[in-house]
């Protein structure tokens, strides 16, 4: 679904959504949500992910995962166990069907859980990001100062 602050699942992602929308045109952002169809229609989603893909009406070759989060009540063990992995599997399948051939993620200092999830899903460290010049302009400017220690995680689809 298109990404905007009022979209279902936007609350799970939090301020990351607004930050990304300030940097990236909304037409290039997708919001994926995981819901429980057994719950009432208005029930909040269980997990959400925000990705950036290529320009509209183009088949994107790669996507950039900005955030994947599980709702607070569903974190940890119990009925919510595995929701992040389930959402990740679903969105990778959807991206593959849309022609995306690679997904990238730049982990931050508080992304240990997501880094582990992505590693278990086949993401590996990489340095050649494979983005277009437009994406490089968007993301390259702050990397040396803010995240010099970071290694991109990458997975071919």
Automatic annotation (TrEMBL):
Q: Which Gene3D superfamilies does the record cross-reference, listed alphabetically?
A: 3.40.630.30
| Highest rank taxon of the organism | Bacteria
What protein is this chain from? N-acetyltransferase domain-containing protein
Which organism is this entry from? Answer: Microbispora rosea
Upper taxonomic classification of the species? Answer: Bacteria, Bacillati, Actinomycetota, Actinomycetes, Streptosporangiales
